[in-house]
Specification:
single chain, 305 residues, alpha+beta, Rossmann fold, ten-stranded mixed β-sheet, two-stranded antiparallel ribbon, 24% helix, extended
């Protein structure tokens, strides 16, 4: 009689392709670029559908767009989002829906260790799609400059977590250096009177007659006004676990050496107290030390004899 496999038994790969797949899913010291899922709800409006497509275009190539409708309620049941996250190896998600109670709705969130970490619900107002702006667009995969304007992003806990979430979604892969021509895209989030104004610009470098070019911003879309609705934040203990850095990535502390905000290396040097009487100075006749009186008397006695 065949025995049933235990549910907690670890599955091992039987092929080389399966081993590579499991290795790619294992935790890493240096994480890969985070993938974002763009999910359509069971009922969506034309504004929500177009907003998901435009945001996905800004996020390419690290994104997955769900073309089929999915009847989900993230704040009531999180299991479906967690299933899609594990299946697509995507830790970030943006879910779009539309209802009479919550029209033109976007839910932004992220997962940690296979479970939902935090979610923030936003309502769309005054939406202008990417296609309405008849300007040249940035290349796919461009790393954007993120700007946050508003006191709430620095003082309100919910807006501070929203800022952290938006940076996590749109910041792109980590790079050591960025050339000047690579700075093409600016995404600005402005908080004013309880609303968040999202604008996207393309950077133009014009001739200025000097070595430093003249910078101009050209709006390329999309443009939308967002209103904060429901919020679900992680507990303090779970948040500490999620943001904890491995020991290998922490910089080793060197005694008496520090760095300032601009990366300049500073050091403290400890020296023994110097004897200034033995310090070599410029030899001048007026600065020569006079002979002792006893030595002078001895010389006179020698000459008299």
């Amino acid at each position: 009689m065949a025995t049933k496999r235990a549910s907690n038994e670890i599955k091992r790969a039987k092929t080389q392709k399966g081993r590579r797949f499991l290795i790619a899913r294992e935790p890493k010291v240096v994480e890969n670029a985070k993938t974002t899922m763009f999910i359509r709800g069971g009922k969506t409006s034309e504004i929500v559908t177009q907003a998901l497509k435009d945001l996905c275009a800004l996020k390419k190539p690290n994104c997955v767009l769900f073309k089929r409708k999915n009847i989900l309620r993230p704040f009531q049941d999180e299991t479906s989002i967690e299933f899609f996250s594990n299946k697509n190896d995507a830790s970030m998600f943006i879910f779009g829906s539309h209802s009479k109670k919550r029209p033109h709705n976007l839910v932004m969130g992220r997962c940690f260790d296979g479970h939902i970490l935090d979610m923030i619900e936003l309502g769309i107002e005054n939406f202008t799609p990417l296609s309405k702006f008849k300007t040249e667009k940035c290349a796919s995969g461009t790393k954007p400059c993120l700007l946050f304007v508003g006191e709430a992003f620095e003082s309100d806990p919910e807006y501070m977590r929203l800022k952290n979430l938006l940076i996590d979604i749109f910041r792109g892969p980590d790079v050591e250096k960025v050339r000047l021509q690579g700075l093409e895209h600016v995404m600005q989030f402005t908080e004013l009177d309880g609303k968040i104004f999202f604008r996207s610009y393309r950077i133009l470098l014009k001739k200025s007659g000097t070595r430093t070019p003249r910078v101009e911003l050209e709006e390329m879309g999309p443009s939308m006004d967002l209103v904060k609705r429901r919020v679900k934040l992680a507990s303090d203990d779970l948040w500490k676990r999620a943001v904890k850095k491995p020991k290998n990535l922490k910089p080793k502390k060197t005694k008496n050496i520090s760095h300032d905000a601009f990366g300049t290396k500073l050091a403290n040097i400890h020296m023994k107290r110097q004897d200034y009487s033995k310090l070599q100075t410029r030899k001048m006749k007026g600065l020569k030390r006079q002979a002792d009186k006893t030595d002078g008397r001895a010389k006179k006695r020698r000459t008299s004899v």
